[in-house]
Amino acid sequence: LPWSSNIFTDGEKLSDDWWSFYDKIWTLVWNLNGKGQSRLTPKGSSASVPSIGQRARGLVESLNIPAAEMAAVVVTGGIGTALSAKTNKITDKAMMLRGERFPRIIFHLVIMYLCKAGLENASKCVQQFITMLPNLISEEDQCKNSLHFIIWSLLRVRSHYGELDDGARFHVISHLILETVIYGKSMLATSILGKDDSAEANSNKESGFILNLVQKDRVLAAASDEVKYMKDAKADRLRQLQDLNSKLDERLIEDIEQLQSLEDDIQFAKTAAISGDDNRKAAFKLAFDEDQQIVADKWIHIFRALSDERGPWSASPFPNNLVTYWKHDKTEDKWRRRMKLKRNYKFDERICQPLSTKSTNENTAPSVDPFVSAKIPEKMKRFLLKGVRGITGDVGSESCEDNNDTSEPSQNKPSENQVSSDAANSADSSDYPTSSVQNRKEQSSTGGDNDYAEVLSSVHCVLVTPKRKLAGQFTITRNALHFSFEFLVEGTGGSSVFNKFQDNKESDAKSELGSVEKLKGNSDVGRGNEAGSGDALMKSQSSKIKHHRRWKITRIRAVYWTRYLLQYTATEIFFDDANAPIFLNFSSQNDAKNVGSLLVSLRNDALFPKGSTKDKNSVISFVDRKVALEMAESARESWRKREISNFEYLMILNTLSGRSYNDLTQYPIFPWILADYSSEKLDFNKSSTFRDLSKPVGALDAKRFKVFEDRYLNFCDPDIPSFYYGSHYSSMGIVLYYLLRLEPFTALHRNLQGGKFDHADRLFQSIESTYRNCLSNTSDVKELTPEFFYMPEFLENLNSYHFGVKQDGEPLGHVGLPPWAKGSPEEFIHINREALESEYVSSNLHHWIDLIFGYKQRGKPAVEAANIFYYLTYEGAVDLENMDDMLQKSAIEDQIANFGQTPIQIFRKKHPRRGPPIPIAHPLYFAPQSITVTSVVPSAISSSSSVLFIGLLDSNIVLMGEELILSVKLWLTTQLQSGGNFTFSGSLEPFFGIGSDVISPRKVATSLAENVEFGRQCLAAVQIHGDNYLILCGNWENSFQIISLSDGRIVQSIRQHKDVVSCVAVSSDGSVIATGSYDTTIMIWHAFRGRSNDKRSKNASNDLSTKDHVIIENPSHILCGHDDIITCLFVSKELDIVISGSKDGTCIFHTLREGTYVRSIRHPSGAGLSKLVASQHGRIVFYSDSDLSLHMYSINGKHIASSESNGRLNCMELSCCGEFMVCAGDHGQIVLRSMDSLGVVWRYDGSGKTITSLAVTPEECFLAGTKDGSLIVFSIENPLLRKGGIQRNKVKSSVG
């Protein structure tokens, strides 16, 4: 007990706080006994007075608190503790506390008040104590001992403190002793009786009398019990103190943990805030850097437009004798053909010189574009220098894009005479030129200027291109894909590359300056001298690579999950705007699949928001292996039914099996078709003309195959399975061998050979020798590449490379061609493609498909077909993913990358044979003589109006007369069924015809300009978002108008040209419109995209302004270069090209996406051009009224053929297949010409009328409009070809 401590020694005073505490305890005890003097019971009535415990229990019960537990708490800790304490389970201890501890507390308080308190407080305490005596005294033996001990103690206190307060305290204590004796006289009586005579001697004295009442043994027993109690109390207090300390320690630990948790939360929030701020800064820097790159690219584009051979600043205007160098363009058409070349602004002329000349001129600078290297005025030079350095941050000498740089790095500080060349170099075409510039521009125009803030996924990857492999960050937002270049990958770009990302991150963190420079793409090569010359070279190359690439989500056409180094860690993304596909390799299969699935989901959601109508044909799926197999099955059926060509089918299989133009280690594979490369003429009716497609190349020659067979049978190695062929039919080396003469493959070949060409005798020198080598050389079993069937330029040394001299002393130049090619690469490609589509190949191609893509690729069928290659060329031969030895893993990856990879196996069962041909489905090819006049509609528009335009939109025929009279009629056609049968909904005769009016003839409410030559070139029919329109130009107000073909109403008029709009052309899908004008410019327009039919998706205010607009009224490009009126146009979204013809006698080629100048073609005699057609196969034909001649050129500007038109032509149209051109004019005949040679295939006599317009239907019927307003239908007169017995070669011979 605190008051029993040694602090209450004699002479020591208690503080007021302690006395206040004790007073409150005493008041509580007193109130529990009777709550004041008014309730004191009479002396001697102890039996009827409730005990202290009973009174405590009553108080607790009145508070509705469990009594047994709370009473003990009340006694020991007070009411406050009782009210807040938890339930005490030790009820017996509570009873003990009530019976033993409570009286002791009262007794100790009384003693303390008598010894230490003032006289008034001591007297008050005595009076209150007296009232409690009946409850404290009982007949129990222990209580008797306590009574004796109390009396003895009071006597001791009186003797010690009785003299205080002038003896007044003595009387107070004596009164208490007396009252105590009186209340306990019944227990003291026995003591009196038990006293001996010696004790009675002092009975006359009060103290002696009272002392005699006290029994010594009871006092000692009580004192002993008190000492024991005090020891137990002290031990209990120590235990409680320990428990308290333990609880304090626990609480302290909890507080420390909570504090640590709080600090962790604060640190996490701080880190998150800092990280978010860093990410925001990094995103801002990336966006700023990308914008700078875009601005620089656009500035260079403007510079080139001004300074090229058709620009106003040109020092060498077209035509000129300057040499232009070319490289391969990655633009793909719908058949995945890459037919185009583009200017090479980074060509190194030193590789066109012999080695001896090179050694003496090593220090000469590489040549650049001749147009920008010409003399430029001094003021212009300073302007260019200021512009380039101002945009690119004073690094005008360095390229900021990915280019075909085969030269040495430029000096850091160029002289002024290098400014123009640096400007040209700094914006050379990248691997994906439009992705960063055009798409970013479109995003900014639609409000997507903060695209980085909406990042949905960001992952490290390697962008695989034919030229190099770029490691960086691939970021996906809701609107775009973005690739940010980080470092250049050396070697194969396998799994080890992804370990370098962390290393680069740590090294970048050491230097903030280095990180900023990496973001800006202007890293200083000189800073890394300590890293060695290799690192310096890598940095130098990295500085010339475009650091940012961007593609729009909505432009995605397909996403394929594919392989890289035989591991399914890659994704290839295809676009619908002729943008080259991109090939991305990730660190794991999960990353590749997750990215692909996310892209497909975002693309579909962007094009078809919730609530809009979805076109099932436009919604795409992520092409994983399951979907790829389903697509292969569908393509197989289409091929078997002759719905697609052999070439198209092989390209589909190559794509589905993981072959890619982007990855040279798994380039698309095509078969050797022909076996005769020595004849003057080929006969496709002889099987010996063709290669045996049922055997692999290695088994074509029996003598050589014996060597392979012996190797297979006798090979014995515990780790390597037996194989027939140690080399593969497709590898990076094979691709570079074939495409040696095309950049970038030329540069890649030189890099592979240590910076020089291989020996001339080992290079690709002739078709015949290469095929012979594939039959005789035991290390050569290569197949072909797709370029053998569509691109003649790879066979020519267009850039005049010096490949060296062969052993026979002849310099190596163009590829030697077979005699039947007549020395023409175009003829070779044409015949090779014709052979691919021949009936022999169509009937046997399934055997080759089984070998390469089908069931003969692996297993027992492959052994039986002798189609077994080295085991590392097969998927699953080694488990690279779980291989721990990095050196071994790297070595295997190198071998896989360099020595060939077998395609993904698509078919597990035997491939079916192709179905029989259906000649009636392609009459122009099989039997053009079967087409004749089947019906004539007189006065189709009006009796006096000649038909100037015929357009076809679905089943509608759009007609326009010379007096601006518009009419729309139905085109009645049949449906071709299996076997060549026709079905009709009406009469069986005729098979095709003109139906009723959809729009009756009516005059368009507009006026033409004076002296305008109104004709076919001024009109175009187009379908946009399911609605049909007619575009009309030649108006007096210098506009062109959009006319709805549902009601003939003008819905939009666009006026942007400065003079009369003279011609118009539309892309095949109707999304792009090109207009030419008398002001010598061409403008490119785009249709509104994504117009939803759902009314909920339309904004009311927007609806008012654009509800009748079908074309965006701001042109995307304004193309210049002509010197006279634009007379004819062609635009192709697939080929990414705009071709314009003018009265100045030239054709100009521009790219559609960027609007960059490509080349010019001049009419041989300089005559003005009147009409122009271009096919999807890359052939252009233009016609001039001045000399009545036709001239054919390739899409790459090479002249192919010329022919006389034999009269004035009023119309030129192409067949839907693009293989034939149909011409007609004043002579009244329709002439069918081949688009391979301009040769006349057939002539069709009409009704002797002048033909003013033509159209070729998808069924290969002709619709001819005449000067007198009649409409003539040329179609198959009867189903002559139903039996399919007529062969095309017979038609050719009859045409002779």
UniProtKB/TrEMBL annotation:
Biased composition annotated in UniProt, kind: Low complexity: 420-431
Keyword Repeat: yes
Domain BEACH: 624-914
Annotated region (Disordered), positions in chain: 394-451, 509-541
Bias type Basic and acidic residues, positions: 509-521
Per-repeat ranges for WD: 1054-1085
Keyword annotations of the record: Coiled coil, Repeat, WD repeat
Coiled coil segments of this chain: 231-265
Residue spans of biased composition, Polar residues class: 406-419, 432-448
SUPFAM superfamilies in the cross-refs: BEACH domain, PH domain-like, WD40 repeat-like
Domain BEACH-type PH stretches: 450-600
Protein name: BEACH domain-containing protein
